[in-house]
Amino acid sequence: MRVAFVSMETTRHRDTDGTRRVERVARHLADRGHDVTIFCAQWWDGYEETITRDHVDYRAVTVSPTVPSFATRLPVLLALHRPDVVHARPDPPAGVVAASLGGTLGRAPLVAERYGDEPIEDDRFYERVATAPDALVTPSETVRTEMRELGAPDERSHVIPESIDMSLVRNVDPAEEIDVVYANPLDGTGNVESLLLGLAELRDRDWSATIIGDGPERDSHEGQAADLRIDDRVTFTGECDRERRVALYKGAHAFVQTARRACFATEFLWSLACGCVGIVEYQAESSAHELVREHGRSFRVTDPQSIADAIVDAGEFDRMAVDEGWQEFDHDAVLERYLDVYRDLADAWGLL
Q1: Which residues on neighbouring strands pair with residue 58, listed in sequence order?
Q2: Considering only CA atoms, which of 17, 92, 89, 7 is closest in space to residue 56?
């Protein structure tokens, strides 16, 4: 299948969850033998219009991420490319509108994907993002609801979650045993304070906790742990690579998710696959609770006291290092869900 992705900015311009997700899907499609091109602003040196990385072609639409020029040039380039499907990110939303025109000219259906971390600065354009595509993909019901409120039809909306590497989960050795692990950027949305207050309620019990991540609030959180007199049992590891994170999750008994905003709780998913008991504090702008609606090894909580109670109650569950029940979130399984959307659209358009 010939797939044209539209993402004016790539991870080389600005590294976000949304850009990483689209590029990962593009790489996985290319690894499966599909013809994949990302139409973007140029990020490489030289005068080549196209370069190839990891079997994915990157096609420069403009030499810099300039919205008017990008939106003007894109439709003709897409039409000349003749893809089977166009898959566009709404950052900027004008890129999806331009991709829709390009798809029409080239007789290709349009899939728009909103991860949820793209800024909504103009509702008029986002209404087009919600209603113009032949299919709309979001990573969670939380983000899907936001798009539905902008007019996205239910029958064209698809929730396709983030994916993980289950072979890595199986093959990495567990780190030292700990009771609680947390992972999130330590910024204004991380809400580590809820976890620390919950742990402080258990000051008279024997436990250990590890906090993964870094950011502007780290010093404040370390100070809070000291003020609560639990700093001798809380380890701040800073940033860790994926293998180290998996090792820590496999050694932990419970993962506590407290972040105020999560378009998709990816680290929470990795921890669940690594056998952690899931403890998630409900937040209005977080989709984390969606992962454990039907998961027995989990607790949904609302405040620090209930976090403390859930950490104690997690002792009812045996430790696990791998939970095969999360195989449906493996990279290959999730990629098939994208391909199902593409095939259904191609069939509807009479392209198969």
Answers
A1: 38, 51
A2: 7
41 touches 63 (CB < 8 A): yes
Kindly state the average pLDDT of the residues 152-177.
97
Does an H or E element contain 209, and which? strand 209-212
Report the share of the chain in percent with pLDDT over 90: 93
Compute the mean pLDDT over every residue in the chain, rounded to the nearest whole number.
95
Rounded CA separation 221/182 (Å): 13
Question: From CA 302, how far away is CA 289, in angstroms rounded?
Answer: 11
Beta bridge partners, 213, equal 238
- Choices 3.40.50.300, 3.30.300.20, 3.20.20.10, 3.40.50.2000: CATH for 166-328: 3.40.50.2000
Q: Among candidates 26, 21, 87, which has minimal Cα distance to 269?
A: 21
Cis peptide, bond prior to residue 92, ω within 30 of zero: yes
Question: DSSP character for 330?
Answer: B
Provide the H-helix boundaries in 132-241: 141-149, 166-171, 192-200, 218-227
Question: 310: which DSSP letter?
Answer: H
Q: May I ask the CATH class of domain 2-163+330-348?
A: alpha beta
> For residues 104 and 111, what is the distance between their CA atoms, to the nearest angstrom?
12
CA distance 85 to 145: 25
